[in-house]
Amino acid sequence: MTFHDVQSFLSKYQDHIILMAGVSLAAFVVSIIVLPLILIRLPADYFIRPQQIPRNHPVVRILLKALKNLIGLVLLILGFVMLFIPGQGILTMLFGVGLMDFPGKRALQTRIACAPRVHESLDWLRLKTNRPLFILPPSLK
Length: 141
What we know:
Elements lengths: L2 H10 L1 H28 L16 H25 L6 H11 L5 H10 L1 H13 L13
């Protein structure tokens, strides 16, 4: 492969490369700034308390649920992409799963949070911000 071949490839796929770089940058910003801010604001008993059901008008509840699921899916996909690019892929996937609604979500979310490396990352973040550590079910620790 010559320099001319590389230059030709880059000019041919310039739009795709710029798009991938933009997605990578956005995912990096979300994982480094936004995700930790949300994780430190969650209550310490988030993984063990019962889920609360909102009491909005049914149409508003359906629209909000659809928007929340869409954002969760985007974060799940970005988290998967971040496994291969810079960013906190597992934590972003955990947050994306947390936004989505599906049967068994809470058990999956808790299982991911109890994974040793994820648990260490969550504890490190909570300690660094002087927040109480997450309380996890003893059976999964």
